[in-house]
Amino acid sequence: MNPENSQSLTRRQVLQSAPLGFGGLALSSILHKNSRARSPLKAQSPPLHQRAKRVIFLFMKGGPSHMDTFDYKPILQRDHGKPLPFDKPKVTFAKTGNLLASPWEFKPYGQCGHLVSELFPNVGRHVDDLCFLHSVHGTNSAHGGALLKLHTGSDNFVRPSMGSWISYGLGTENENLPSFITICPTLAHGGVQNWSAGFLPAHHQGSPIGNASITASKARVRHIQNNRWTSGQQIKQLNLIHKLNQEHRQDLNEHNPELEDRIRSFELAFRMQTTMPEAQDISGESKATRKLYGLENSVTEDFGHQCLMARRFAERGVRFIQVTHSDQDVQWDQHGNLRKGHAKKAAQVDWPIAGLLTDLKTRGLLEDTLVIWGGEFGRTPTVQGPKMDGRDHNPHGFTIWMAGGGVKGGYRHGSTDEYGYYAQEKPLHIHDFHATLLALLGIDHEQLTFRHAGRDFRLTDVHGKIASDIFA
Amino acid sequence: MRNIPIRILLTLSWINLYGSDHWAFQPITKPTLPLVRNKDWPMNGIDHFILAKLEKRGIPAPKPAEESVLQRRLSFDLTGLPPRGATKETSLLQQVEVLLASPHYGERWGRHWLDVARYADSNGLDENAAHANAWRYRDYVVQSFNEDKPFNQFLTEQIAGDLLPDNGNLDLRNKNLIATGFLSMGPKVLAEPDMVKLEMDIIDEQIDTLGQAFLGLTLGCARCHEHKFDPVTLEDYYALAGIFKSTTTMESLKRPTRWKENSIASPGETKLAEKHNTLVEAQNNLITAFRDKENQVLLNSGKFKKLPKKPNLHYPETIRKKLEKLLVDLKTLEESKPKLDSAMGVSDGKVTNLPVLHRGEPDLAGNVQARGFLSVLNIPNAKVPDENSSGRLELANWMASPKNPLTARVIVNRVWHWHFGKGLVPTPDNFGLLGDSPSHPELLDWLAAKFIEGGWSIKKLHRLILDSATWQMSSSAQSETVKRDPHNKFYSRAPIRRIEAEAIRDTLLLISGRIDTSLGGSTWDFENRKLVFNHTSKDSTSYNINRRSLYLPVIRNHVYDLFQLFDFPDPNIMKGNRSRTTTSQQALYLMNSSLVIETARKLAVDNAGNVSTKGIDRLYNQIFQRSAKEKEMEVGRSFMEAFTVNASPQERFQALAQCLICSNEFIFLK
Questions:
Q1: pLDDT in tens, A164-212
Q2: What 8-state DSSP symbol labels residue A452?
Q3: Region at A74 (left for phi over 0; alpha for psi -120 to 50; beta for the rest)
Q4: Where are the domains of chain A?
Q5: Nearest to B557 among A191, A202, A236 (CB)
Q6: Each residue of A272-307: pLDDT tens digit?
């Protein structure tokens, strides 16, 4: 159907175009935003105190360097060119040389005075709302393993994604949209596995909007549009399908939930044809908002568009929204060319992220929306590359920050050593990060289980310590 | 967590004591047929077991399904395609034989096994490299089902094909090598820098998959601790792990890591390739000698103190041209290198016994464990691995032994599951203490015993099941039946089944006259080991062919969207029990995808937009393989009349055809 038609479709039109009569209740549920029918995604109230209701995860693929962004290391600056005075890990991704000072200046921001590099001047203005987790560490030093670890908690087995676990735990606040949406995700390094429901019911699978090879303005959910029939014609089809299905079940003499669910699934699909494009349509946003997200600047336009979509989904009650910084070249992975590469990446995201934070705050959404920023790992303080202008992968200590959703602003949790190689104070493993994330959403990570292949699985496996010091 | 008897949670030794009493570890016995009151209902032994339970609960004997319903059920069941012109005169049994002899049977049942074998055309996980030779394993599986290869042999080939005698028969040897692709098919963390971890993860994946696939046991748990619920010890795990440590699955564990592929070339081809190699070598030598000579000339000329960095730039023009020609010839020669066919698979490596690793940590190594099998399933006189080979053949023989209580029960239950959509044991991949108990334990044992007696023939098992009143019953139930067996636990009516993703696509292609039913071979032109996705996320795989769905590439981490939507199993892990979810994305696919819209359009063109009742009847036959009822023709006609004022007859017909495809009757089998 063509989207203009679907948007202009009124209840009256639909009623007029339904001569076969879908039946009062079914027909009204096609139009009503919230169907009263039983839904597997029905919102659930969490067992613990809920600080955040939804998550926007800004994923910086490739591994941004913490020493060059949010984790200032004066001793590293001082010891530039010297060897690392302690052992490098037994297993590294590739060889590195001596210490490399950050080529960027840092300055204090906000009341808390947190030091942020000149790569993030606009995010810097929000430091009083940011909660820095400086001691995050994982176990895998390759992109694929690290992406899977971060998204699913396991780098060697197939497990559900954190967004799917959260959808499973909390359901959705808007039954006309998926509960877990991932905007322009990467298809490499785990691909679908990073938003897969694994063994959880399929409703909890992330719904991808486009992928990293598609610009945000062109990204769509697949098969959301019908180019053959108008919505009026589709209503007639749905009425007939409904009638055929009634006939089909006549001789069964019993209620069959699967057959009933299927009828409902067509109704929701029909509604999604309208709600999804509507949620993605930013044409009604003001000029000020467009500017806030950097849509008028070709450098920030694409990521800004993704961030703005994220806010629109957050407003509409989508539970977990992932935004992948999906630049077409090697993303944040600067084994060489750090100065140019990181400067380019940062310029693409700094303004839109700041805009998103401002916008969420203005709309009162930041209170119960948890914004997370981070990559699959950080980078080494030691140098790499022929021009001495690169850093290797470093899963042993790196920074993720959070904002809103019940976390302390202007707060730092843990630290890396004085060079930024290893997590040192209050180390926060990826499992701990997941446990803390679930706790912020009011879910006990030990209680959120699913029985599969003979045992009860958790996002945090048999691990996970909650970093409760970050709770506001 | 579900209730687990407290006594099995007490101590580890208790677990072993209790666990070995578990039903699945007891020898298979052949029970006598239970007595039933209604002597007319049973058609064969299966029905005695089913009816006895129904009678005990006062559930009325089920009615048989209608002929047209049965034909549709049978055709989808055995071939994954709708019935095509089965004549009414042939009996159901005759139809069974025709379908079992059709090559489409192997395509359907081979695909079932591929679910268990986590078959995929790419590695998935972190580095999604192409398995461009995986299709050889797929075709091997299909052929094995079509040939009705005895299941014990099928098992042995997949675990130890490379160790089987072949009497110099090259085809047999290649088939056996290809079969071991089963062990290599799992996803591997190809960028893993820690080689020890990489190797142990691969071994773990092999043990876990073969444990679930053949024995219905989750052995992977025992890598780090005694199995909490099943009587599998750390020692058992490392006894098995030693067998796979002594097996070569990877050609290189060091990056760039490479999985092993066995050559399946003929001696002639190999010889030709070797000859070609000597030619390349000779040309290389020629070039080196030429360069040495000319370099010496340069030095002798006195123009240079030492050889310049790129001496060829200083050669006289004629010499440069000569060198260029030699290099071009070398390149041509290299490019014309004959390609040798190879297949993913394993071979024996260095025989090694592994130490027991507590918590799976290489740093916490305990005593060395001799290679062997599971201590709870002690089979008298089973040959244990010796020092001359990995022990895979001994493992395969132990698994395929008629005395192994699990293997026959597990496969018989799988076959039952694939016929009925549910197993006698509802957890087909888990026969352990946390799996569900069988609903009809005596029937399971009776079938397993018959199966072994029948030489492990899968086709004989099909005939037995399909020729039962149990399989042939109707899905509609009397209210008394529904009251007494609300969840259909006792087979009081046929379970309603949804056709799978592959069958949906194949049927759409078939009814719109587009399907290409050619058999086997590779349909995917992609360089072996090349990444199917890199950082650009561009999808370079095309699904734009009309071959049966079995032949579409299975790309891990990015399965073809129709498959993903309709519960195709995640090809990263084995799965004998596909999920069956109902989502609005499925509805969107049926409403809006080009596959469905185009199918409906073709049907409309095919019927020349014939909006008469005759046209509707034909449409019902094409889509549902039955005639339209009076009332249905009337409903169809009024739908088309009222569709839209200015729509053409063909458009109206297309809209109707799409409704039939979206309806429950298309996707559910009664």
A1: 999 999 988 888 898 999 999 988 888 888 998 888 887 788 989 998 8
A2: E
A3: alpha
A4: 47-223+286-470
A5: A191
A6: 898 999 999 999 999 999 999 999 999 999 999 999
Same domain as B441, residue B414: yes
Asked if B351 and B249 sit in the same domain, the reply is yes
Is residue B5 in a domain? no
Asked if B226 has any chain A CB less than 8 Å from its own CB, the reply is no
Contact across the interface for B592 and A224, Cβ inside 8 Å: yes
A452 neighbourhood in chain B, CB within 8 Å: none
Are B224 and B355 contained in the same domain? Answer: yes
ipTM reported for the complex, 2 dp: 0.87
What token pair was written down for B321? 């041209």
**B215/B324 same-domain check:** no
- Tell me the residues of chain B between 401 and 440 that have a Cβ less than 8 Å away from chain A: 427, 429-430, 432, 434-435
Which chain A residue is nearest to residue B668, measuring alpha carbons? A259
The answer to whether B535 faces chain A, any CB pair under 8 Å, is yes
- For residues B174 and B258, state if they share a domain: yes
Q: B496 in contact with A at a CB cutoff of 8 Å?
A: yes
Overall number of domains in chain B: 4
CA distance B2 to B434: 9
Q: Which residues in B lie closer than 8 A to residue A140 (C-beta atoms)?
A: 192
Q: How many CB pairs under 8 A join A and B?
A: 228
Q: Choose the final residue of a domain: B303, B318, B340.
A: B340
Q: Which residues, at least 6 apart from B433, have a Cβ–Cβ distance to it below 8 Å?
A: B4, B8, B19, B22, B229, B230
Disruptive mutation site among A161, A236, A240 for chain B (greatest number of B CBs within 10 Å) = A240
pLDDT, tens only, B411-440: 999 999 999 999 999 999 999 988 889 999
- The reported pTM is 0.81
Residue B330 lies in a domain: yes
Residue B294: give the domain boundaries.
265-340
- CA R_g for chain A: 24
Residue B457: CB atoms within 10 Å:
15
User: In A, residues 20-49, which contact B (CB 8 Å cutoff)?
Assistant: 20
Written in H, E and C, the secondary structure of B143-177 is HHHHCCCCHHHHHHHHHHHHHCCCCCCHHHHHHHH
Identify the residue among A30, A41, A157, A377 best suited for mutation to test binding to B, counting B beta carbons within 10 A and taking the highest: A157
Q: Does A323 touch chain B (CB under 8 A)?
A: no
Q: Which chain B residues contact residue A252 at CB under 8 A?
A: 475-477, 496
CA–CA separation, A171 and A54 (whole Å): 11
Looking at per-residue pLDDT, the higher value among A143 and A126 belongs to A126
CATH architecture under which domain A47-223+286-470 falls: 3-Layer(aba) Sandwich (3.40)
Report which secondary-structure segment, H or E, holds B637. helix B630-642
A20 CB neighbours in chain B (<8 A) are 638-639, 642
Together in a domain, B323 and B357: no
- In chain A, which residue's Cα lies nearest the Cα of B201? A156
Give average pLDDT by consecutive 10-residue segment, chain B, 670 residues.
Answer: 37 47 93 96 98 96 94 97 78 94 98 98 90 97 98 98 95 97 95 89 95 93 70 90 97 92 92 92 94 89 84 88 93 89 97 88 84 90 93 97 97 98 94 90 98 98 98 93 91 95 98 96 92 82 93 93 90 88 89 96 89 90 94 95 90 96 95
Note whether residue B534 is domain-resident. Answer: no
What's residue B10's pLDDT? Answer: 36
Question: How many CA atoms lie less than 13 Å away from B392 in the CB half-sphere?
Answer: 29
Cα B74 to the center of its chain, rounded Å? 21
Residue A140: closest C-alpha in chain B: B192
Identity of residue A399: T
Q: Do B269 and B362 lie in a common domain?
A: no
User: CB of A252 within 8 Å of any CB in chain B?
Assistant: yes
Together in a domain, B258 and B272: no
Please answer yes or no on whether B229 and A232 come within 8 Å at the CB atom: no
The answer to whether the CB atoms of B639 and A240 lie below 8 A apart is yes
